[in-house]
Input
Amino acid sequence: MHGHSRERSIALLLVTVGLVAASGASCPRSVYQATGHPVLSAEPTLEEVIQVVNQNNLQIERFSAPSAEISASDMPASLRASVAYERDRRLRVRAGTLVTGPELDLGSNDELFWIWFRRNPQQALYYCRHDRYATSPIRQMLPIDPDWLIEAMGINPLDPEVPYEGPFRLKNGAWEIRTVRQTADGPATKITVVDEVRGLIRGQYLFDGQGRLAASAAISEHRYDPVSGLSMARKVEIRCPAAKFTMQVDLGNVRINRLAGDPRELWSMPRYDDYPLVDLGNPNLQLPPPAAQAPALQAPPPATRQPALVRPPSMPVQGRRPQPGRDRPAY
Output
């Protein structure tokens, strides 16, 4: 397999495997308005932000999106897709076109994740156990923990035991909270942007210890589901600068807490004729060299700044930990 194609394939795998999952926790419940949405006060405390976010997110156990659409860098056209998810790590994305048939099958279960591209130069079905990712060769290509990518859809609860900083009000009115995470590569700063009224997550950004953007997710078009009484985003744009990778997902009509299909088939790694299995967790697997690291992002001049929640937030000078209230992103 050509190195460039393999790198794009694995980038798509890791980004998409982390696209639509969430984790469980417990927290106090807040009061819903008649619309079903919890509402933040004008000057919320950190505890209130966590409580209102979790009032919605903790109740999303699963969902299905039978009419989704996926596009990505180096992908010649958008693919029609079906997406199914069940907490914590169960995911299935199958995509293709009416003309060519199936083009993509990727997913995750409690044990491993996998990806199949029909058009790969080397025909194979790639897979990796979750517990082998941290020490696997694929981290050389996309050194982002898939457990962080799990949060990209903005339906993950906020752990009240995590030491957050904030909330800090942004210029567009939204609220920002920050936390520092310990990763295999050292401390990383996670920024979460929360809607100023409904407490829905609208953006997530991960910066490494040198202030470089490792990954971002711009989350938009939240829809209220009257059946479940919960809200989810319809569109997500994910960027991984180091891998030079961008991906857009439109989930279409999302069915919250409803699944279609046989769960045993949904969460099982498939088999494809003439496509051998390749273990990405194999320490002897030969991979192309890692992509060059992207330079640290700097805030552009005010005249060129893009609309809120589209451009990733600016970060402080490399090597300095962000300071609350002083190093807030400029939107």
Q: What stands out?
A: The longest strand covers residues 213-225. The chain has a mean pLDDT of 77.
